[in-house]
Amino acid sequence: MPLCSWEKTVSCPYNIAHQITERRLQTHLVKCRRNHPNSGITVCPFNSCHHVPLPEEQYHRVNCPDRKLVEMARYQVGLGGMKDVTNFVPAKRKIQIEEDQEEDWEMEATI
Question: pTM for this structure?
C-alpha cells in the first residue's frame, strides 16, 4: 500500500505481503533474496529487477522486455561497432543521493 496516492508499489516476488515503492525495489530484492535463498526464484539475465519463479524462467527469457536492449548491444559489439560503443558518452543525469539508504519498514508502514 503506497504511503501517498501518487506512489506506485509492486509486490515482492519472495513475499507478496511486502509492498515496495518502485524506487526502492532493487534494494529490497537484494535483501529479500538473501533472506529466502531456497525460494525457487531466479534472476533474469537481462534485468536484475526481474525475479522470476523457476517454472517461468524459460518463458521470461524469451519474452523479457529488456532482452532487446541487451541483444542489440551484443550484436553491435559483435559486428565491429566496438569503436562506436567505446566512444559513447552518456548524457549527464541529475542523481539524487539519499542520506538514509536503509529501508525503514516502520516508517513506510501505514497505520
Answer: 0.58
